[in-house]
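Could you help me review a protein record that somebody else here produced? This is what I was given.
***
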Amino acid sequence: MTNIKVEHTQNRVRAHAWISGKVQGVGYRASTWDTATLLKLNGWVRNLRDGRVEAVFEGPADVVEEMIQWCHKGPPTASVDTVLVEFESPEGLRGFQVTR
């Protein structure tokens, strides 16, 4: 896993995140969609079979960083243990989706 510090610029980045803890069955995906849409980020979020949530966020670096910080808390009903993030090259995603 690459540990890259995101600079607070308008450069577009892609963050691939894995969130663990009590994050399924608590509205985490819906809240992620709400927050990402409000922040005008592109990407997707889904549940994994192992109980984690996986998400991809694309957009300006400072906004993606804000979203990653949100992931550490999630909705009030969640209890986040860890957020692992890898930065990748943006793919030019459009919109934000909840997938299965």
In short: The longest strand covers residues 12-22.
